[in-house]
Design brief:
- The protein has a single domain, classed as 434 Repressor (Amino-terminal Domain) (Orthogonal Bundle), CATH 1.10.260.
- Helix content is 71%, strand content 0%.
- Helix 1 crosses helix 5, helix 2 crosses helix 5 and helix 3 packs across helix 4.
- The longest helix has 18 residues.
Length: 76
Amino acid sequence: MLAMTLIDELLARRLPPTWARRAIRLDAGVSQVRMAAELGVHRLTFVRWETGVHEPRGENAERYARLLAELQRVAS
């Protein structure tokens, strides 16, 4: 397992609110299935993160936050 970088730590702490997570994904034209696959989690797990039923932690939060930041950057 790779050590968390400073940027990853900051991103994980600043995971957008649930409404923004969905908006970023939709603006990028990415499906829930694709997001889940990219993050290496089950679709239901991803849906729970996106809706706020559960929050990702640790490495999952880092990867999710980084993916959202990159999607937002390239979709703008």
